[in-house]
Structure formats: structure tokens, C-alpha cells
Amino acid sequence: MTLFGLENLPYGVFSTADGVRRIGVRLGGTVRDVSAIDDALRQPTLNALMALGRPRWTEIRSRITEVAPLSPAIPLAEVRLHLPFDVADYTDFYSSEHHAANVSRILRPQRPGLPAAWKHLPIGYHGRSGTVVVSGTPVERPHGQLAEGVFGPSARLDIEAEVGFVVGVPGRRIPTGRFAEHVFGVVLVNDWSARDIQAFEYQPLGPFLAKSFATSVSPWVVPLDAFATFPAVVQEPRPVSYLLPPGPALDVQLRVEWNGTEVSTPPYAQMYWTAAQQLAHLTVNGASVRTGDLYASGTVSGPSRGEAGSFLELTSNGTEPVKLADGSVRGFLLDGDTVTISATATGAAGTTIGLGSVTGTVCP
Amino acid sequence: MTLFGLENLPYGVFSTADGVRRIGVRLGGTVRDVSAIDDALRQPTLNALMALGRPRWTEIRSRITEVAPLSPAIPLAEVRLHLPFDVADYTDFYSSEHHAANVSRILRPQRPGLPAAWKHLPIGYHGRSGTVVVSGTPVERPHGQLAEGVFGPSARLDIEAEVGFVVGVPGRRIPTGRFAEHVFGVVLVNDWSARDIQAFEYQPLGPFLAKSFATSVSPWVVPLDAFATFPAVVQEPRPVSYLLPPGPALDVQLRVEWNGTEVSTPPYAQMYWTAAQQLAHLTVNGASVRTGDLYASGTVSGPSRGEAGSFLELTSNGTEPVKLADGSVRGFLLDGDTVTISATATGAAGTTIGLGSVTGTVCP
Predict the structure, then answer these.
(1) Do residues A46 and A171 share a domain?
(2) Rounded to an integer, what distance in angstroms lies between the CA atom of residue A293 and that of residue B363?
């Protein structure tokens, strides 16, 4: 049993000794070069493929299903994986009710509870696309103003475990029912966050330097076709019409490891707002999306401490440290720490598929 | 006397009947094709030129000063002007003290005064680069949630008159003293804003759909070399060291026309944070900037009503409408309204130079 069988076949961009970037799919522990199959695959990024649209995606995927098993198997250990697509705009949402409630309670104790608009629309903000990096890229600890007149390295460096959606086909005012016509596939996202910088800077325009230094994504883009779909969670009050029907939920189970110790298992299936609703919201004002736009779910947190998608929540803002396997304790990230977010999901064929992982090591 | 003499020579991208995009400079009321001068100018955008760096910019500008007057003069009326550069990341600041104080008073009367961090750092946020459009592009009135359960067209559509800075040379941690090595030139920006959508959505992550539908920029990028520089305003309390020295102020005088009636004259010279400080802040956390990054000053407002850079301020949130030349009154924008922001500045030679204008008409 593999998480990367023929029912998965995620796309990535790899290079071997010659340094040339090629498109491949993952099959088991190997990469298969699929660049010869179509002109859109003879490219250094997935963008041309992503722009083709769902009928061609289906056709090419079907062809790859036949050809990939017969292609030379290149062990994963022998390739370098690159950022799989050129990121156009990067947007991040805030769509886990548990996360939003936890953050309000921890950061705004004088006003706990969800922000007023939270159940009416998927709150989001724009991030920095130029600092989206592929898994494995070291993350330099950001500097910034931590309080009035205090400048230095962040002492509260955190992660946010998220699921990201990659737009293939451009559009405007995309109804929830047309989600699958526009979205090409799914990646894992770690939206690294400096909580001290964030707390000082975020009023009234939102987080800025606290998140713009790095956003890591997994190297494999899992096609939407590979996922089983489920009914979304019940939304009460009923959203306004452009957010209905809610579109499908995906059963993605995340796993966060801190220096090799599993510290949480955030359940994406429990997110309040679906990816289809996020895309409908993002475009309902007339804004366009382009090939390569990336939008992320927001931190995925479940109801229990062991399902927290951020260390802010996991350690109650550092006040209740976690113990790692080596006996050391952590509130926030120390230099040299490595965080790996991996995930599996229920696949369209009913089996479990892998999304791979997104990893990063903090350096000074 | 022209605002577009040899001491100005802004760059733009134009096409004539054949539809091919070429790089030109503006001289008086004409465009001069400069694409034959250098490979970096034989391009459909300014990005390759912008990536060359200041020594080459100076050399090419010097060559253009000799060649442009001898080149065929194409009347402006005969060309179409395009978005002059591919926008990488778009960032917007909030650096006019008068604007920030006005907005706090109007939108947060329970907590007037500047946000706590305002005098410690240039507050900013990321916008949507995919919806940056060139002057003249019609602006569709955005739809969104205006209050709980209320979805429809914005009834409080506004402008923000701003000055934008275009990054040429990539970098990280750019000290204020290296501003001119990285920034290629200056444009005018209208950051269209839907105040009702903004008020409902902006807590806690900042404006999102209220601003993402369109941001208009002027077609001419005025090289930094064309501007005279002046001392920045006195900053008290003294900023932390990465924001010092403050770098130069530019004496740009904006002019806002609403359906042809001049309604305000925002003074950019009075901005609190300089463009050099904004770039230093944007990159101090380790974030990189790329060729084509655009960052804008934030709404430029002076101390008096007639110097407001937004209609929110000009009309006190619609409660004190302005009278236009045709006798009609306005609180916010109506369908069919046209706003033109133009500007002049003190040039390096001591003469007045033009920045052209950014215009847009609201359609339903």
C-alpha cells in the first residue's frame, strides 16, 4: 500500500544532476518524468499545464496514468524538488472556527469570541507572493519591532499549518459550483508567523512583516481529481447567496512534527469555510484570479489542544510549553528547530492518498 | 515651458495601429520610441530595464536625452498607453499623519488618534498585484457584504490619491541610504476603496475585498533622477535605527478632479514616512523585493479639507457633500463619475516636472 499510487499522481518540478527543471509525477518513492507527454508539460513550472483547464487536465492525467508506470523510476533521493509553480497573488484565509476562537481568546482577551464578520464571510488578507518558497528552504528568523522602540529578532516565531489551493484557470466572480473548473490542485502550506511583530504592527491594516518573510509550500501539487469530496460542515447563520451551495469539504488530515516529535494532528475536514467559498468570496467583488494564484485555508485547528495548527495555540502563547522526544521543552521556535507538516487524505477511490510534506529549519 | 522636457523623460509602454507594445519616453505632448537604444528597451514592459540597476539607468537616460529629441514625434493622441511594468508584489502604506488621524476620527470615533504603532513604523499591508490596472481602465463598482446579511454594490466607493514607487533591483534588508540603488521610479496611484465593504470585513486582518478589485496607476514612470530631493519632516519620537537616516522627501503636489472639478490638492511633501523608510521597513524582516514590486505611499492628505486624498475625508464620510462644477453634489462616487489624479513635482533641475495623471471612470 502506497500513499502515492496511480490514484494520486501529484505533479512537481524536479531536477537531477544536469540542473534542468522538468515536470514529473510522484509514484511511490520515485519520480517519473512526464515532460514528453504534452507541450504544456515540457516546461520548468506547472503554470502552462495549470492554464489548460479541467477537460485537458483530465485528459493529461489519464494519459499519465498509462505512461508513468512504464517510465524510468528516478528515486526521490536523487532529485531536487523546486517551487512547482510561479506564484501570482498569494492570499490567506482564517477559516478554522477553532483557530479563530483560540486566537481571539489568547491575543485579545479583553474581546474574546469571533470577530463580528467571521460567520458571515471567510475573512482573509493578501500575503507576499515573492517570499513563497518550496519545502526545505531554510527560514531565517525575522527581525522587527517587537514593542515601542524595541528592534530585534522575533522571540515568538510560530508556524501555521494550512492547506493551499492553486488556481489554474483565470476568472472573476466564480460561483462555488465552478470551483473545480478553476482550481488545479492542493498543496500544504506553512505560513510562518512572528507573533511579537504581529501583535505590535497589526492594527488597523492586518499582519504585514509578521508573515511576509517566508511562506513554505510542499513540492507536490495533488490534483483536485485525486480527492474524495464530503459535505461541508453546517453553517449557521446561513451564508448569503454567493457563498452557497458551500461546495465540497476535503478530508485532509495534517500532522505537525517539531524536531521529529509529533505535536499535533490538525483536521482540515472540520474547517468552517470551504475552498469553494473562499474562491467565491475572493472574486465576488470583481477581482480577477490568475494562473498561479495561491490561496490558503488559514491555520487548521481542531477543538483539542493536540489538534492545534499553530504553536501559539499549542503552548497557550508560550505559557504551557510542549515536551519534545529529546526531553527539551518549547514555547516557540528556537534556532535550529525543524518543523515538518505532512498530510494524508481520503482519495477519490476511497483509499488514503499522501500530500507529502512541507518542512523548514529555522536559522538565525 | 513644458512639464515634460528633457529633464523629465518618463518611461512608458505604448502601441500604435500595429498593436505592438514598445517602450517610449514622453517629451512634451509626444511619445518618442526609444526601443532601438538598448536591448533592455526592446521589450513589451519596463521590467528588463528596471532590473539593470542605477549605473545603467543613468547611462541609458543620458543616451535618451541625446537621442529622443531627434526621434520621430508621435502625438500622444495617436498612441495607446499600457501598464508600463509587470507588477510583482503590491504593497500599500499608510504614511500620511493627517490621513491616519482623519480616518481614526471618522471610522473609529470611540478610539480616535493614531494607532499605537503608527509613529514607530510605517504601517502597511499587501494588496492584490493582479488587479493593478493602467490609467483609463474602467472601474466596475465592487459588490460585497456591506453589513450582516446585506450583499450588494458598494454605496461608499472612494478613491485614495497616492504616490507609488517601482522597485527595479531586487534586494533584502535595504537600508534607507540604498533606496536609490533599488527604486527605479515613481507613478501615481489611485487605490480605489469601498468603505462599506471595508468597515464590515477589516477586523482583524485588514482590508481585503474593499481594495482588491482595482488599483489604477499612471502610465508614465518618472525616473527617480528627475526629482529634486528635500529633507524629510521631523519625526518625533525618533525612529529606531533601521529607519534612519530618513532619506529624502520629494515635493510632489497632487491634484484630484471629480468629473472635471478640482476638489483637492494633496501635498506629498508633508508625508510622515519617506519612501526610503517604507522600503527599509518592508525588507527589514528578511523579506525580498523583486523587479516590478510596487509600493504606494498611502493616501496623501494635508491638514486642511481641501488637501484630502480620499472622499471619506473630503466629505466627512459622506455627511458633508462637495458641490461639483455642474451643480451636482457628491458624498461618494456615483456610476459614471470620473476621477483624475494628476501631479507635478519640483525637478532635479529646479524646474517643475509632470507626473501625468491616473484616471478612471466608475461603471456599474
Answers:
(1) no
(2) 26
